[in-house]
Each structure stands twice: as C-alpha cells, then as structure tokens.
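Researcher: Structure prediction, please.
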Amino acid sequence: MSFIDIIKDKARADKKTIVLPETTDKRTLIAASHIVAEGIADIVMVGNEEKIMDGAGWLEVDLTGVKVVDPRTTDKLDEYAQIFYETRKHKGMTVEKAKEILVNDYLTFAVLMVKANDADGMVAGACHATADTLRPALQILKTAPGVKLVSGFFIMDVPNCEYGENGTFLFADCGLNQDPTSEELAAIADTSAKSFKTLVGAKPIIAMLSHSTKGSAKHPLVDKVSRAVEIAKAEYPHLTVDGELQTDAALVPSVAKSKAKGSEVAGHANVLIFPNLDCGNIGYKLVQRLAKAEAYGPMLQGIAKPVNDLSRGCSWEDIVGVVALTAVQAQLM
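Model: Predicted structure follows.
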C-alpha cells in the first residue's frame, strides 16, 4: 500500500471537514468530487452554489454530498465578521470592513470557518500565492502554542527508493522561510520531526543539509548549518539530528561511512532540512520531476489549526492528497 493510500485510510477512520475556497478552479472541483466519493473527508466549498454546480456540470463531475457556503447569503456572516473584528481591531479593523473582506475574499472566509470550528482545516493555493494563503491564517488562527515560527514542508514519496522511510521523506523548508537563521533552522527541525511522526508514523531521523559534510568546506553558510545542529541538540534534545551533511552522506549508508563515520543520522535520514528556500524549492522539484516522486504540499506547520498550501502547478490528485493529509493533521489537534 502506498503512503498516500495509508493516509487516506487514516482520514476515513475519523472523518473531518475540510473547506476548499478556490471554487473557480477546475482542479478543485474535480478533487472535491473524488474526496467525497472516496469518503476521505466532508467537503465545504465557498462561493456561489449555482456557479459551482454549473462548473461541475461542465466538467461532468458529481458534487453530491458537497456543502456550499455563499459568504453573501450565509447566516454566519455576522458571527464571522465579529470574530474577524475582535482578532484584528488593534490593526484598525471594523465590523463593516470585516464583512466587506469576507464576502469578497474566499480564503479569509474559509479561515474564519476554521476559527469558528465550522471546519477542521483548509486547503488552498492552487491559484493563489503562498503569501495569500498564509496571511489570513497567521492573522486569524495565529501560531500554535510553543511554536517559534511557521514553516512549509513537503512529504515526498519516491517510487522504488531504498532510502528514507521506504522512499518517504519530509523536506523542509520548501515554501516559506527564505533564509532562516541557525535558530530558525533548529526550530524547523523540531516542528518537522513532529509532522513526520504524525503523518508518516516512523521515527524522524533529521539531516541538516549543506554543501559540506562535517567541516569538509569552510564558509559562513556552512557555519550557519553547523550552528543550527548545535542549537537543535541543546534546545530539542529529544531529536535525532546531525549535520552539517551533504545529501549523499545523509542518505547513502556507504557514503556515510566514509564522510560521516559514527553519525547515527548519516545514511539513514528521512527528514531533510535545507539551508534556505532556494535549496528546498529546487530540491523538491528535482525529486518530483526526475525521480517521478509524489510531492504533497507545501504543507504548513506551526499554525494553531490545519491550513495547507498547494503548488500552483498541482494536479487534482495532489489536492486530494493534501486534503487527506490535512484531515489527519486535524485528527491529532
């Protein structure tokens, strides 16, 4: 059974409600029909019901069982506007302005549904930038208790791969923090370990990646990663983490023996922490396209409730997968 099939089974076992606000996107409509048909989650779509159903008819997909909420007609608008106002009044928000935003910005409306416990999580990003998805989530839901920063990750499921957790990896940060400090890299390692344990169910073995292995190169970029390892071991002693490691040393046991002898991580890593967003984004897309890997994300970690991003190049199958992962996250919150 594939990784995503296991996740779908977990989602079905305790079905959650996920809201999808990008209802003018055909991939979202197709995904919604499959999610409901497979029993992965209950789906709420935000928008005009007639337009949504017209789109579904044109695509020949069945949205029976999908709930549609129109911000302009819902009796929840006043409640959501009041919550939004209370959350943002220190920034000059008024109830009237809150209502205006909610009827025009479906992503913000969907986040308010999650805040009000009318949905367990939200998935968006098929036709919005990460910043547009993240902004209302951070403004309204805030970060989870004890979390230093929100970061983005991908679950990578690589076919016919002997490395990682039977070919399954977590890559971070691939979608949010452009140039994290050593302290931020250590925090990303901690939240990534929790995400890996939650979603994959295996022990996270974390490699802090670099172009250097154990001092083989000298550069401030290498120092940043080696310092991150020191911080991670001091502040999060429960983690199995090591670095700085080149990717081959992190993954391949034979290479690890020569480059990082004695490391409990080298040659066994399943969680890869990239030194910056350039490396993370380039790395996941190379693995996705060249190794034919399934890439689920960018998932967001560190937000108080599950809100997850999508790549704008995603397929409807990707949306189904991220919804299943979001539902499993919601089960454990």
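Model: Residues 182-200 form the longest helix (19 residues).
Researcher: Thanks, that helps.
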